[in-house]
Amino acid sequence: MTQLNDTLARPLRDLRISVLDRCNLRCTYCMPEESLHARGVFLRPHYLLSDGEIELLVRVFARLGVHKVRLTGGEPLLRPGFVELVGRIASVEGVTDLALTTNAVLLPRHAAALKEAGLGRITVSLDSLDEQVFRKMAGNRGSVQEVFDGIRAAEEAGFAKLKINTVVQRDINDHTLMDLVSYFRNTGHTVRLIEFMDVGNVNHWDRKLVVPSADLLKMIHDRWPLMPVAKQPLGETARRYAFSDGAGEIGFISSITEPFCGDCSRARVTAEGLFYSCLFSAKGTVLRDKIREGMGEDELVEVIRGLWSKRADRYSELRNHLPQRQPHVEMYRMGG
Ligand code: SAM
Ligand code: SF4
Ligand code: SF4
Predict the structure, then answer these.
(1) Residue 235 is assigned to a structural domain of this protein
(2) What is the pTM for the complete model shown?
(3) pLDDT tens, position by position, 91-101
């Protein structure tokens, strides 16, 4: 199979599927409670891709060179029958790396079954170990203890190396980061500090709330010297550093200050079956209705091939030159 490249010579390698737009938390930077009062804001079940439709799309993308699939949301663990869906995706030929992004609250219930079903890796989102800060950022839902219980369950199920995603906001959780970093040193897990991004339209993004990764890197390096990890896999979103004392690694995802569009190989499909070629796209391509109208696997392969070969997205690199904030799809629909 020849590699499928976009107009900037970036191959299609990576697929992120949002399996549900609902969530049990209300993180202020993603789906702030006050923005979700309108009825009908969430998709009704019929509008969601079914397990079979998701599996079909994974087969389509795998035929085009995708080996890495990440399941996200909303909160994926809220989707009924999620473990069975994982099993179906894990058995698709060509999928060698199947990962999940979760807030971990429901992991105690599902971690062992997910391992059994073939899930390879888990990323857990956790913004602070300080209960008050955590609750403030999670919209007064969940607790640090619940996330810890989820992490423990994942470890016990055999997920030895977790990624811990931490969104950083100035004067909101940045004063608690050193505790968080310290806690996860020597655990085998890797904290990734994420710059607050201008995804969606409802999260009150403000550049003043963004703490540049370079500042965090310096702060952490001053306490625990860091060395850049020499070999970074292509398409890796995080810049990785190793603690010089052997305590593990840390990553920085710096979409605002150090965009990484140059090797972005990620396609995205929302829970309602819209294809997006960039996290910041305003408009997607409807795949669900094509499937429901009877379009088969071969034709879908050609549709995606056509879309990817025309892809020219590099929003993060252009952000600073755009006149004003552009409309985007919400993060809880698109998935991270
Ligand atoms: N609910 C799951 C979770 O939180 O892990 C999966 C979906 S969530 C949308 C995926 C990731 O996006 C999370 O790690 C979250 O912290 C991150 N995220 C959401 N909104 C963000 C924003 N405005 N800026 C940066 N990261 C964001
Ligand atoms: Fe839910 Fe994840 Fe968004 Fe937080 S970041 S509101 S946990 S989907
Ligand atoms: Fe990829 Fe779009 Fe993010 Fe650039 S802005 S790295 S093209 S998702």
Answers:
(1) yes
(2) 0.96
(3) 999 999 999 99
